[in-house]
Amino acid sequence: MSEIELQSKSHSVKERLRFIELMLLFRGWVVRRDIVDKFETSMPAATRDLKAYSDLAPGNMYLDNSTKRWVLSLVNFTPLFQIEKGEALAILRNTTFSKNIGISHTDGVLGVPRISAPSIDVLTHLTRAVANKEAVNIEYCAASRGVETTVIVPHSFVDNGIRWHIRSYDKNRDRFWDFVIGRIKDVKPNKNKVLNKETIESDHQWNRMVRLELVAHPSLDNLINKKAIECEYGMENGILILQVRAAVAGYWLRMWNVDSSHDHSLDGKEYQLCLANPETLYDVDNALLAPGYSVAKT
């Protein structure tokens, strides 16, 4: 199979070929009915798609005449489509796809329920503001100040693992800030001009990249077998290096339960990772969200 042959196919054909490959990989076999149900096409059209896939990747599957299934051939399998690790998990979380491969009867992929969900009206007002680089008036339930009104220039959405927030410039306080979307009660358009200092390009914390060096926790009380952690996170030479935005570093470290203390002193089996370079959090606005982190005394 040549890349040219695959790329010469139309987008719709490539979508169906990709679906065939996903069914082979995730379930181990595919039949015409899968394609018909997914794409609302005909049986003859599904036959043509299966033949097209077989022609492009003849070693990837074979026809089991007794079941009329096209079965995955692992020995000779060469993928037509590249799937990233994160993408594979997202595919599996899709309830329709999990039903297609027959695991929905076991709840598919059971995830943590979202107990904080923003209103659609608020969310879509914000997406339009981001898309068009506009300011909006919001009514916001602040944790420490109660309900207040302010003008923001939103530029990015963040899912911190617990809830969503919108990274924005707060015109009233003249700074960039994270606004929890679920706490925004109302949004109204604002036609005031957006200044250069209020745009994403001027958000230092957003544009600054921070290097996180994660290693297995050294305390045997927290972790007996560090090789298990090194295997789980695909560490090389005992370390996992990530480049993240300063604006989210504290959130990520908290979500991952990373001991970010300077002496790796946090106790508890929930702390199986530690930050080998806590000094990297210097001047990170949300650094204190990282478990155990404190500003080093000089």
Automatic annotation (TrEMBL):
<feature type="domain" description="DNA-binding transcriptional repressor CapW C-terminal dimerisation">
    <location>
        <begin position="209"/>
        <end position="281"/>
    </location>
</feature>
<dbReference type="InterPro" id="IPR016634">
    <property type="entry name" value="CapW-like"/>
</dbReference>
<feature type="domain" description="WYL">
    <location>
        <begin position="121"/>
        <end position="188"/>
    </location>
</feature>
<dbReference type="Pfam" id="PF26107">
    <property type="entry name" value="BrxR_CTD"/>
</dbReference>
<dbReference type="InterPro" id="IPR026881">
    <property type="entry name" value="WYL_dom"/>
</dbReference>
<dbReference type="Pfam" id="PF26109">
    <property type="entry name" value="WHD_BrxR"/>
</dbReference>
<dbReference type="InterPro" id="IPR059020">
    <property type="entry name" value="CapW_CTD"/>
</dbReference>
<dbReference type="InterPro" id="IPR059019">
    <property type="entry name" value="WHD_CapW"/>
</dbReference>
<feature type="domain" description="DNA-binding transcriptional repressor CapW winged helix-turn-helix">
    <location>
        <begin position="13"/>
        <end position="82"/>
    </location>
</feature>
<dbReference type="Pfam" id="PF13280">
    <property type="entry name" value="WYL"/>
</dbReference>
<protein>
    <submittedName>
        <fullName>Uncharacterized protein</fullName>
    </submittedName>
</protein>
